[in-house]
Amino acid sequence: MTANGILQIAIYFVVVAALTKPLGAYMARVFNGERTLLHPFLRPLERLCYWLCGVEEASEQRWTQYAASLLSFSLFSFLALYALARLQGWLPLNPMALGTGQAPAGTTPMTPDLAFNTAVSFTTNTDWQNYSGEATLSYLVQMVGLTMQNFASAAAGMAVAVALIRGFARQQAKTIGNFWTDIVRGTVYVLLPISLAAALFFCAQGVVQNVNPYTRVVTVEGKRQVIAQGPVASQEAIKTLGTNGGGFFNANSAHPYENPTPLTNMVQMLLIFAIPAGLTYVFGAMTGDTRQGWAIFAAMSVMFLAGVLALYWSEQAGNPLLAKQGLQSAATAAQPGGNMEGKETRFGIPATALFAAVTTGASCGAVNGMHDSLTPLGGLIPLFNMQAGEVVFGGAGAGLYGMLLFAILAVFIAGLMVGRTPEYLGKNTGVQRCLGGGGVSEGRLLERGLRGGDGKPEQRGSARPGGDSLCLHERGGEQWERVRGSQRKHTLVQPDDWNRDAGGALPDHHSNAGDGGQSCDEKEGGGDRGDAADTRAAVRGFVGGDGGDCRGADVLPCTVAGSDHGALFDVRGEVVLNHAASD
Amino acid sequence: MTKQALPGLRMMLLMTLLTGLVYPGVVTGLCQVLFPVQANGSLVRFKGRVVGAELIGQDFTRPQYFHPRPSAAGMEGYDAAASGGSNLGPTSQVLVDRVRGAADKFHSENPEFRGRIPADLLTTSGSGLDPHVSPASAEAQVERVAAARGMSREKVAELVRAFTERRDLGVLGEPRVNVLKLNLALEENSEGAKTESLR
Which residues contact B169 (CB under 8 A, 6 or more apart)? Predict the structure, then answer.
């Protein structure tokens, strides 16, 4: 490993970290429908999109409608791409007559299975290439089919991530946003402007952008060379920004027309991580606690940096079998050393190793060197990144929600290990919803319980294991059951008592939650107490937080205190997007 | 689901229009106006005819030219309509044999060369169209080229230095030499012909 190599990796990471907040804050504004700097220019386009599609901008969808919208959009996208690929021989912008009888030798037709594979792959943002771009696809399919899918699948991924964030962030809402406005906003304000700027930059650096037939030249030594062309720059930008990865050419970002300089290489890697990293900030911003976003960012960063350094080290160490043939394995000032099989001279080892870690971490799939030819340990890192679910920043949208599932799982398991109700962002996981409905009061209770009394949770924890102000949550299973029973009883038999207990029909339910918590505190302050009183306090706490048991008005208490009606796990521990909306 | 179907179709058509036709169309228009040379492939004209593209490697086998890296693109290498790498794994016997063959060939072509051969010169690139070699790989061929051309070693080495590109912004990527540009510079030196980009 060389100092310069480490420096390149460090520069990359610093720029990613620096981009996260501004881009994340911008995206949060966009998806909240707030005004941004680009609104004067792009707002008319956004409105035009709604008008053309008959979308009510202000309307919101329950998660079922949101999911149905996503599915219908993806279904039509898939059908359109399949049809385009199959019909390319009859369509324009096909100067090489690909897919027809006049196609040049060595090209491959778009057979039904290949078109099916390609359509599924690009609609789902998988974007693997089971074909060689320059030998299979017309310019029209590359643009109208693949470039469009690069936008659409990225926008859909972002939409799902934002919907999930809303599920975390919202209180008592039955809706999680509107899929149509989310993908229009994501496309118009985020993907299109950045792609346009990036495409122009790429072209200035040498990426081609034309619809010419392939250039036929006779080389200096008199050999014939056919040089594939195409509208590459426009696709290159969204290929990386949308973490799609399906290259215009077979060699993807190793191809000099896709990635001509180390500078374009750096920009492509930045584009790959920009949205996934920014979404961690969006997560923090929209849930009201940016530290939660940075915690996710930090977890991703640790995995990323460990991976990239291991990958770089292994590739730079080179291949001893080739060194035996007289090949220089050590890097010098004038040559790269290391394992250069499948790597480009202009990138060398560090920029290729970095790209490999970035693209597999982000489920992008673009490559600037051939991963098949990586050293064994070097190849282990991309495999690890992929098998970890591609959550090391991850795909546009997919990375965040993948990582959030891990966070929930970790919180759940850790909660079970310490005997405390697992909770993430004030939402308990794996608890019956009627209890969890008061996520807020529960969160507050937890807080109070931890802070209450002598204010030293660890002392309290050890002094009185299994019972304290939390009444419910820090209690062992036996009492838990009892409490649950009594809660159920309350729920079924005495709904009216709830409100009375919790402060009657107080309009300010926030204070209800407080009440519940307080009574717990008081009890705790009072030292030993009966289980019945305990339970009652607990129930009151929950009821208080349950927003007039959520049968009440729209002004719900939990709203103030940062809770939600919904939990991410239902009572059977099954993952659902949002209980509030699924009710 | 049925209620969402119609908007789904309309949105798909709208996105196709906006991101599949308008966006690439605008980019194509702007690039053709702003960066016509790059947008059309950075083609290089020499003695009045197009001999290749600055960014796309091409094969050189004659002793008076600098040779590029081996290529896995197409059947014979440097097929610019069939990019790709060898995809050979590090323990592949095919790879080891190929590298041994390339090393033997290099030594027979450059009998004066001593030491270890630069890593890039015996390996195929990811694209098979790598237009560059490392400065050390160019340096290793200077003796042969100078002898074949009847030029002084210093003069050829001077050209190599002149055509060595530094890292981008001083840090990014690797130093490199564009083989086509260097070889055309050699030709210019010998014949006084002029290389020009297609501007």
Answer: A263
Quote the pTM value: 0.80
Q: What pLDDT, on the 0 to 100 scale, is given for residue A574?
A: 38
Size of interface A-B (CB pairs under 8 A): 386
Q: In terms of Cα–Cα distance, which of A309, A272, A286, A351 is closest to A19? A: A272
In contact, B178 and B160? CB cutoff 8 Å: no
Segment among A180-189, A217-226, A455-464 with least mean pLDDT: A455-464
Residue A229 and residue B40: Cβ atoms within 8 Å? yes
Q: Which residue of B has its CA nearest to A67?
A: B1
b/e per residue, A216-225, with b = 16+ CB within 10 A? ebebbeeeeb
What pLDDT, on a 0 to 100 scale, did the predictor assign at position B197? Answer: 58
Inter-axis angle of helices A112-123 and A63-87, nearest 10:
140
The ipTM value here is: 0.95
Q: What is the dihedral of CA B173, B175, B180, B185, to 10 degrees?
A: 150
Q: Could you tell me which residues come within 8 angstroms of residue A303 by beta carbon, excluding any fewer than 6 positions away?
A: A361, A385, A388, A392
**Cβ-based contacts of B167 with chain A (< 8 Å):** 4, 262
Distance CA A128, CA A363 (A): 10
φ, ψ of residue A358 to 5 degrees: the values are: -65, -50
Q: B176-178 and B132-133: which strand pairing?
A: antiparallel
- Residues of chain A with Cβ-Cβ distance to B46 below 8 Å are 220
Of the pLDDT bands very low, low, confident and very high (cuts 50, 70, 90), residue A233 is very high
* pLDDT greater than 60 at residue A539: no
Q: Return the pLDDT at A548.
A: 32
CB contact under 8 A, A333 and B175: yes
CB count within 10 Å of CB A228 equals 27
With beta carbons less than 8 A apart as the criterion, state whether A215 and A229 touch: yes
B110 to A562, B54, B140: CA distances (angstroms)? 74, 26, 8
Rounded CA separation B108/B119 (Å)? 18
Among B32, B88, B90, whose Cβ lies nearest the Cβ of A376? Answer: B90
Chain A CB within 8 Å of residue B122 CB: yes
Contact B81 A106 (CB under 8 A): yes
pLDDT tens per residue across span A170-206: 877 889 999 999 999 999 999 999 999 999 999 999 9
Distance CA A131, CA B110 (A): 39
- Count CA within 13 A, CB hemisphere, residue A210: 23
A73-118 pLDDT tens trace: 999 999 999 999 999 999 999 999 998 888 888 888 999 999 999 9
Chain A contacts in chain B segment 79-98 (CB below 8 A): 79-91, 95-96
Predicted confidence at residue B191, as pLDDT, reads: 66
Query: Do the Cβ atoms of A235 and A142 come closer than 8 Å?
Result: yes
Q: Are B55 and A251 an interchain contact pair (Cβ–Cβ within 8 Å)?
A: no
Domain boundaries, chain A: 1-37+283-394, 43-208+234-257, 420-582
Closest CA–CA distance from residue A143 to any residue of chain B (Å): 5
Please tell me which residue, A546 or A24, carries the higher pLDDT value: A24
A202 with B51: CB under 8 angstroms?
no
**C-alpha A489, offset from chain centre:** 41
Q: Closest Cα to residue A430, out of A399, A466, A475, A473?
A: A473
Contacts of B184 in chain A (CB under 8 A): 220
